[in-house]
Design goal:
Elements (H helix, E strand, L loop, with lengths): L2 H16 L4 E9 L6 H12 L8 E7 L1 E5 L5 E4 L14 E4 L4 E8 L8 E6 L4
Helix pairs in contact: 1-2
Organism: Nonomuraea jabiensis
InterPro entries: Hydgase_Ni_incorp_HypA/HybF_CS, HypA/HybF
Keywords: Metal-binding, Nickel, Zinc
Length: 127
């Protein structure tokens, strides 16, 4: 389950960005090539965040597609399937690009009695 390693790095980055503040929510963009399973990611994040300022955060996972270009018919399309084939002709001779990003898009901080603050666009790469 590679999601654990991703989430350990993510929690570390969130804690650095939070500077001791409690985090209410985080939005993470992960490319389809990472083959992240939503449920496994949620469980891994819960384990990695236990006992930290991030432990109560709600994480929104956004999976971004990769571009599939067919060498046979030339069709280009987007897919979140890591075993993509051309949707036009069914050929498996495809070139794949994109869909490899890992980005902490935003954080929302928990506050008592006031609106939470937000930090956006923090690039993050797994180990």
């Amino acid at each position: 389950m590679h999601e654990i390693g991703m989430c350990e790095g993510l929690v570390e980055l969130i804690e650095q960005q939070a500077g001791g503040r409690a985090v209410a929510a985080a939005r993470v963009r992960v490319g389809a090539r990472h083959a992240v399973v939503d449920e496994a990611f949620g469980q891994a994040f819960t384990l990695a965040a236990a006992g930290t300022t991030v432990q109560d955060a709600v994480v929104e996972l956004v999976i971004t597609p990769m571009t599939v270009g067919c060498r046979n018919c030339g069709e280009r399309s987007e897919s979140v399937d890591t075993l993509a084939v051309c949707p036009g002709c069914g050929d498996d001779g495809v070139d794949i690009s994109g869909g490899d990003e890992l980005v902490l898009e935003s954080l929302t901080f928990a506050t008592s009695g006031a609106a939470g603050g937000e930090v956006s666009g923090v690039p993050w790469h797994s180990r």
